[in-house]
Amino acid sequence: MARPMKVDKDRKNFMLRIRMTSADRAIIHNAAEADGREISTWARETLLRMARRKLTTIRTKWTKGDSA
């Protein structure tokens, strides 16, 4: 039996390639492994969490009228 199709919002259609050293990869691998996740899942979730945090910080500064 085939796997059911995912709905559009759940499909992952894009890839992000990042150049890194073997030491960088080992750090990322170890962090993902410590969380019990695949590297791609750990990296995606971590990048999204940090990006959301950054955007929240920027929006907060903007709405308060801060310049930096």
Task: Please summarize what this structure is.
The chain has about 70 residues and is mostly helical.
Task: Reconstruct the topology from this structure.
Blueprint: H1 22-34, H2 39-64
Helix pairs in contact: 1-2
What do you see in this structure?
This protein is mainly alpha-helical and 68 residues long. Helix content is 57%, strand content 0%. The protein has helices spanning 22-34, 39-64. Helix 1 (22-34) crosses helix 2. The chain has a domain at 24-68. It is flat and about 55 Å long. The chain has 2 helices and no strands.
Arithmetic mean pLDDT: 91
Order of helices and strands: HH
Q: What is the helix fraction of residues, given as a range?
A: 55-70%
Backbone shape: flat
- Poorly predicted residue ranges: none
What is the strand tally? 0
Distance between the termini: 55 Å
The major pleated sheet works out as: none
Number of helical regions: 2
Strand content: under 5%
Rg, alpha carbons: 17 Å
Name the structural class.
Answer: mainly alpha
